[in-house]
């Protein structure tokens, strides 16, 4: 009974928050580009200043990840995102094509519902706030229940910075006590105009089922392919750095290592040099039970935990300085825990004989839960890189870099983003790194630039012949005369010209 009352109260508060956001957005859409740019600049700067503070709050609340790494995420989500969008036009006339005589005008969606994950709660909240407001929208955020305090704190910082710069109160809203029911009601609220959902598969499915436009992103299970021409020493260091970044909580992080047999021994040596611990058969079995106590489902208790903590959970010890846990593997399936997405510093190591095997194995791994998201390759063979990229069913392929933060735009030329679309491969509407350009609509004023003669419709070529045939048909004329006399018994002879006109009218109506 108490939970029902609590849930109802939460929904009521959410509805009020949406109403305030709607009222604020109606004022906000009258702001100039300069006013909006000043607001998001202040938000980005204030959030950036609080990056470490928010990182500490996040680790304390969720128990996931590493403070120093979450600080980097917050910096990317604030000033990194700001730098990538600050010069974009998002208000009024944004482009003119003088040659084609088309003028493009931006207009906002309205109120955006944003869903944030537990793995990257504060950085995602900051990033979504910036891109929403830059496009003249209001935003209402539903935090993950296990990260609600740090997420709300990040939003309060953003909201105060916006108010200090002249934004209407309520432009940035949030749900203090999120539940799945409240989040679902938020997405279905009639005043919500767009959903940007980052989270589990069920949540993304709910966003797409809400009846509203939605950007949702799927899970990642991206392999990294160590191609035989790779600089193994450099590649392995990047892979370990990437996998241990925030203890593997980014969906774009490498999930499996696929190595060519010619360089396997060198790779194993470098993995050990970088703190990797290769488990034995008994330890592998223990780890499998910890990774996935229920076959096909990831144990949430290992997400964002260190290799040491996970090893202890599995009942064995690892040396001081261990960075990742690695097990040699051959099978890919939902029922083999090492081959599913593991948001933790755990790797399966697959050995392949040639490029064809590598591609087939990587596709199997992607089809096992990460189709459409990301994968990576380390290689110095440009043809091998291009062929790999063409064959992989993903939306981004990182080359010779850290996949985790490279996909998010930190070490690549991709737009900085914490919502990475999976395209049609992953059942998403977009394959892009979601940014401000996805959060406004464009209307177009188009002038006529070509002359076109519209032809007069041609009548049936046999039209006149058919009319003449009907008019000259004696039986038809006699039927008309009978019909007239049946109506007026007093009439005498009927003028044949009148009969002809009646038949012509009937014929024209019939043929048309």
Automatic annotation (TrEMBL):
<dbReference type="GO" id="GO:0016620">
    <property type="term" value="F:oxidoreductase activity, acting on the aldehyde or oxo group of donors, NAD or NADP as acceptor"/>
</dbReference>
<dbReference type="InterPro" id="IPR015590">
    <property type="entry name" value="Aldehyde_DH_dom"/>
</dbReference>
<dbReference type="InterPro" id="IPR016163">
    <property type="entry name" value="Ald_DH_C"/>
</dbReference>
<dbReference type="Pfam" id="PF00171">
    <property type="entry name" value="Aldedh"/>
</dbReference>
<keyword id="KW-0560">Oxidoreductase</keyword>
<protein>
    <submittedName>
        <fullName>Acetaldehyde dehydrogenase</fullName>
    </submittedName>
</protein>
<dbReference type="InterPro" id="IPR016161">
    <property type="entry name" value="Ald_DH/histidinol_DH"/>
</dbReference>
<dbReference type="InterPro" id="IPR016162">
    <property type="entry name" value="Ald_DH_N"/>
</dbReference>
<feature type="domain" description="Aldehyde dehydrogenase">
    <location>
        <begin position="8"/>
        <end position="273"/>
    </location>
</feature>
């Amino acid at each position: 009974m108490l939970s029902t009352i609590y849930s109802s109260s939460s929904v009521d508060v959410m509805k009020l928050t949406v109403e305030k956001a709607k009222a604020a957005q109606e004022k906000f859409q009258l702001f100039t580009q300069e006013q909006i740019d000043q607001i998001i600049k202040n938000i980005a700067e204030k959030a950036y200043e609080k990056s470490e503070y928010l990182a500490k709050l996040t680790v304390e609340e969720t128990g996931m990840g590493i403070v120093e790494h979450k600080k980097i995420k917050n910096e990317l989500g604030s000033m990194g995102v700001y730098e990538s969008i600050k010069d974009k036009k998002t208000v009024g006339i944004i482009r003119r094509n003088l040659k084609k005589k088309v003028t493009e005008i931006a207009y906002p969606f309205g109120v955006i519902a944003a869903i944030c994950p537990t793995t990257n709660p504060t950085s995602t909240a900051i990033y979504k706030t910036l891109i929403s407001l830059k496009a003249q929208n209001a935003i209402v955020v539903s935090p993950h229940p296990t990260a609600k305090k740090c997420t709300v704190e990040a939003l309060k910082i953003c909201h105060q910075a916006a108010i200090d710069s002249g934004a209407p109160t309520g432009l940035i809203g949030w749900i203090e006590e999120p539940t799945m029911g409240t989040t679902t009601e938020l997405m279905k609220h009639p005043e919500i105009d767009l959903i940007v959902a980052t989270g589990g598969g069920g949540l993304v499915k709910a966003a797409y089922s809400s009846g509203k436009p939605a950007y949702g992103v799927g899970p990642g299970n991206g392999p990294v392919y160590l191609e035989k021409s790779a600089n193994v020493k450099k590649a392995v260091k990047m892979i370990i750095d990437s996998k241990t970044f925030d203890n593997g909580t980014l969906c774009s992080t490498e999930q499996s290592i696929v190595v060519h047999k010619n360089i396997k021994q060198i790779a194993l040596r470098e993995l050990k040099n970088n703190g990797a611990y290769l488990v034995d058969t008994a330890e592998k079995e223990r780890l499998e039970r910890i990774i996935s106590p229920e076959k096909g489902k990831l144990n949430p208790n290992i997400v964002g935990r260190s290799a040491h903590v996970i090893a202890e959970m599995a009942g064995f010890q690892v040396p001081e300085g261990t960075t990742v846990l690695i097990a040699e593997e051959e099978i890919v399936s939902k029922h083999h825990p090492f081959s599913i997405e593991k948001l933790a510093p755990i790797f399966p190591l697959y050995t392949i004989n040639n490029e064809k095997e590598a591609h087939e194995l990587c596709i199997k791994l992607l089809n096992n839960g990460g189709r459409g998201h990301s994968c990576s390759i380390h290689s110095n063979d440009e043809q091998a890189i291009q062929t790999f990229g063409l064959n992989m069913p993903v939306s981004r392929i990182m080359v010779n870099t850290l996949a985790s933060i490279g996909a998010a735009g930190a070490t690549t030329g991709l737009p900085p983003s914490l919502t990475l679309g999976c395209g049609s491969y992953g059942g998403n509407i977009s394959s892009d790194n979601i940014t401000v350009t996805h959060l406004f609509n464009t209307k177009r004023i188009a002038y006529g630039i070509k002359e076109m003669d519209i032809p007069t419709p041609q009548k049936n070529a046999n039209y006149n012949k058919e009319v003449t045939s009907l008019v000259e048909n004696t039986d038809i004329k006699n039927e008309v005369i009978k019909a007239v006399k049946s109506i007026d018994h007093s009439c005498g002879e009927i003028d044949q010209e009148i009969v002809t006109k009646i038949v012509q009218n009937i014929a024209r109506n019939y043929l048309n």
